[in-house]
Write a structure and sequence with these properties.
This protein is mainly beta and 329 residues long. Strands 1-2-3-4-5-6-7-8-9-10-11-12-13-14 form a 14-stranded antiparallel barrel.
């Protein structure tokens, strides 16, 4: 009888330690984030979602059941649960002719017997041509501007159920002759239940600093702290997810994302999401306002996956995104 109890207690104790580690790190991250008061933020493009699948589900969710390499910008710890090599690209069209683009490549390695998954990726916002005008409004010509992020991410397992990951990114921004650069770091934890029906995640995004400033004006990166959960109810063909985001401005004022992914057979996924911040920022006085509502579709054919999404910005229009990825063993 005692031996049976010990057998049952071991996985419970491992899970308990994993949750305690995750909780301790999360409390530290929240304390650090709450200390960032009344700051001016640069490089806000870091909060754009380049991945079509996550965009359809509402945004940067930090807990997923079906992890994949393209979600590294939301939680780098996802990479530890994804062993095949993969490559992918994504593109989106925003209002005012702004183009969103991303590309990534991921591979698994073994370092001193420890499995480590590494990824490199590029994420960009291209603002196209803009008119250059004088103080009196005279047109002097045109100029281009862009934001660029180059990332290296790595992840490994701390236990059978708990993973940790980190992303280091070099940032560059140019508006006409004005330039700025910065270093950004993301760190994440990811826990998957033994039944693989529940996942928890915690992430700190965009911790870092500017290396060069616009006109010598010092600004901070958009620090964000997120916690989330995803659950697949028994006998229900869908995954439900919620993520809470702290913007770090003094008092705790959480934003939240919610999403549902319907499993329509093995190759097809239908996705529906809601972004509270987008809705509150863009909502109008109309009786029906779909700002912040996001939809999408995923189709997998052998090693290829195609993801489509459409995010509503109310009267401003919306964002259409497409992602294509390939997995190789």
């Amino acid at each position: 009888m005692n031996s049976n109890r010990n057998i049952l207690a071991k996985p419970f104790m491992r899970t308990g330690r994993a949750i305690l580690i995750a909780g301790g790190v999360l409390l530290l991250l929240i304390e650090q984030g709450s200390a960032q008061n009344s700051r001016k933020e640069a490089f806000r493009f870091l909060e754009t979602v380049s991945d079509a699948r996550l965009s359809a589900l509402g945004g940067h969710h930090v807990a997923l059941l079906d992890v994949y390499s393209g979600s590294y910008r939301s939680n780098p710890a996802f990479l530890a649960s994804y062993s095949p090599g993969s490559a992918g690209l994504s593109s989106g069209r925003l209002p005012a002719g702004i183009t969103l683009a991303g590309v990534h490549y991921q591979k698994a390695f073994s370092i001193q017997g420890q499995g480590v998954n590494l990824l490199t990726g590029v994420h960009s916002l291209l603002y196209g041509k803009m008119d250059l005008r004088s103080e009196t409004g005279e047109t002097l010509g045109e100029f281009r501007s862009h934001d660029l992020e180059w990332s290296i991410a790595g992840a490994t397992r701390l236990t059978d159920r708990l993973s940790v990951g980190t992303t280091v990114s070099l940032l560059g921004s140019q508006y006409d002759q004005y330039r700025s650069s910065a270093l950004s770091i993301r760190a994440g934890l990811y826990w998957l239940s033994e039944t693989e029906q529940t996942a928890l995640g915690a992430v700190i995004r965009n911790a870092g600093f500017q290396m060069s400033e616009y006109l010598s004006v010092k600004e901070q990166l958009p620090l964000r702290i997120s916690v989330g959960i995803t659950h697949k109810p028994a006998y229900f063909p869908a995954r439900l997810m919620v993520t809470v985001v702290d913007d770090g401005y003094g008092d705790f004022r959480p934003d939240w994302l919610s999403g549902i992914e319907f499993l329509l057979g093995d190759p097809v996924r239908f996705r529906l999401g809601y972004n509270y911040r987008t809705h509150s920022d863009l909502k109008s006085d109309s009786r029906i306002d779909l700002s912040g509502v996001q939809t999408g579709l995923g189709i997998q054919v052998k090693e290829w996956t195609i993801d489509l999404s459409r995010s509503s910005w109310g009267r401003l229009g919306g964002i259409f995104q497409i992602g294509i990825s390939r997995t190789s063993n």
